[in-house]
From TrEMBL:
<feature type="transmembrane region" description="Helical">
    <location>
        <begin position="175"/>
        <end position="193"/>
    </location>
</feature>
<dbReference type="GO" id="GO:0030318">
    <property type="term" value="P:melanocyte differentiation"/>
</dbReference>
<feature type="transmembrane region" description="Helical">
    <location>
        <begin position="133"/>
        <end position="155"/>
    </location>
</feature>
<dbReference type="GO" id="GO:0033162">
    <property type="term" value="C:melanosome membrane"/>
</dbReference>
<feature type="transmembrane region" description="Helical">
    <location>
        <begin position="76"/>
        <end position="98"/>
    </location>
</feature>
<feature type="domain" description="Citrate transporter-like">
    <location>
        <begin position="50"/>
        <end position="229"/>
    </location>
</feature>
<protein>
    <recommendedName>
        <fullName>Citrate transporter-like domain-containing protein</fullName>
    </recommendedName>
</protein>
<feature type="transmembrane region" description="Helical">
    <location>
        <begin position="104"/>
        <end position="121"/>
    </location>
</feature>
<keyword id="KW-1133">Transmembrane helix</keyword>
<dbReference type="InterPro" id="IPR004680">
    <property type="entry name" value="Cit_transptr-like_dom"/>
</dbReference>
<keyword id="KW-0472">Membrane</keyword>
<dbReference type="InterPro" id="IPR051475">
    <property type="entry name" value="Diverse_Ion_Transporter"/>
</dbReference>
<dbReference type="Pfam" id="PF03600">
    <property type="entry name" value="CitMHS"/>
</dbReference>
<dbReference type="GO" id="GO:0042438">
    <property type="term" value="P:melanin biosynthetic process"/>
</dbReference>
<keyword id="KW-0813">Transport</keyword>
<keyword id="KW-0812">Transmembrane</keyword>
<dbReference type="GO" id="GO:0055085">
    <property type="term" value="P:transmembrane transport"/>
</dbReference>
Length: 275
């Protein structure tokens, strides 16, 4: 029902009334949207009452889902797992074998092309329609933004200020303070900008920091604290992690869209309950 409301609202918004008839059609569509929204509110009240009862029978519900949604094409599953295993193996080999002159993006693209060949899907347009083009363009723009911030030396400035704070600390406590600082600086920064480009930009900063003779710190704890902080910060906002953006795009396609502030409030409420 949410998806239907979303479709009708989009249809109404695409009509630019240039005549009396088009204005009347748009009014009818908006009236239909309002009627469906009232029906949705009524159904949600009933739904919440049913959920409280169904939560008690979760084992039965899982068994029913397993019966209804079985894997029907096992051959395609084997092909997918084969390609996925090959791509993951190439990701690992790319890090350790210098003879592989392929970027990670090219490995992923070659895996996708190989799977299309193996699957022998004739309706290629249907697959292209299912691709999250808006999400991909958003990621592209986000990486452009991160590169611009790197050229403006904002990330370097964050790293330099972190290094200055670490140098002030006595040498016997320096490693512990460095780990805590890197963890929380990366967590706060990753909640405002995507954690993948931020991590990629911060790694050279941490390497320079570890090689500084005035600091004299091992690089591994700093890298691990960066990874943990970026992962933690990715839960803070909608744009903090790539998975959040992909999930929001797919949910929007099915009529379950949520805004930046809704995600922010929900994630903060969960963290407060966990604390």
């Amino acid at each position: 029902l949410k998806h239907e409301i979303h479709v009708w609202r989009l249809t109404a918004q695409r009509i630019n009334p240039a005549s009396r008839e088009e204005t009347a059609v748009k009014c009818l569509l908006m009236q239909k949207v309002l009627t469906l929204e009232i029906l949705l509110r009524k159904k949600l009240k009933t739904f919440h009452r049913q959920i409280s009862q169904e939560d008690k029978n979760w084992e039965t519900n899982i068994q029913e889902l397993q019966k209804k949604h079985r894997i029907t094409d096992k051959i395609l599953l084997i092909k997918c797992l084969t390609v996925l295993g090959f791509v993951i193996l190439m990701f690992f080999l790319n890090s350790f074998v210098p003879g592989i002159h392929l970027d990670l993006g090219w490995i992923a693209m070659l895996g996708a092309i190989w799977l299309l060949v193996l699957a022998d899907i004739h309706d290629f347009e249907m697959i292209l329609n299912r691709v999250e083009w808006a999400t991909l363009l958003f990621f592209a723009a986000l990486f452009v933004l991160m590169e611009a911030l790197a050229h403006l030396h904002l990330i370097d400035y964050i790293g330099e200020q972190t290094a200055l704070l670490i140098k002030v600390v006595p040498e016997d406590q320096r490693l512990a303070v460095a780990i805590i600082l890197v963890l929380w600086v990366s967590a706060l920064a990753s909640s405002l900008i995507d954690n993948i480009p931020f991590t990629a930009t911060m790694i050279p900063v941490l390497l320079n920091l570890s090689q500084d003779p005035d600091v004299n710190l091992p690089v591994k704890p700093l890298i691990f604290s960066l990874a943990m902080g970026a992962c933690l910060g990715g839960n803070g906002t909608l744009i903090g992690a790539s998975a959040n953006v992909v999930c929001a795009g797919i949910a929007e396609q099915h009529g379950y869209g949520f805004s930046f502030m809704e995600f922010f409030r929900c994630s903060n409420n969960k963290e407060e309950k966990a604390n």
